[in-house]
Design goal:
The protein is α+β, with helices and mostly antiparallel strands. About 35% of the residues lie in helices and about 20% in strands. It has one domain: Alpha-Beta Plaits (2-Layer Sandwich), CATH 3.30.70.100. The chain has a three-stranded antiparallel sheet, covered by helices on one side. The two termini are about 15 Å apart.
């Protein structure tokens, strides 16, 4: 499981964009988003760095670990 904090996730629209970005990489991934806490949980076999890069490119960079 990948646990990320996305400071720029402010609303449900942001959460949908983040979910779409993750699912574009792994259509079988499970994604949970919470705009209130700015947390994203991803269950996938794909490496975390791939998701971090894609989310950053989409305008939603994750906080560094």
């Amino acid at each position: 499981m990948i646990n990320l904090t996305i400071p720029k996730m402010a609303c449900g629209g942001c959460a949908k964009s983040i979910t779409k970005t993750v699912l574009d990489i792994d259509a079988n991934a499970q994604v949970e988003t919470d705009p209130t806490t700015k947390k994203v949980l991803i269950t996938s076999h794909i490496d975390e760095s791939i998701f971090r890069t894609a989310l950053s490119t989409a305008g939603y960079p994750a906080d560094p670990k």
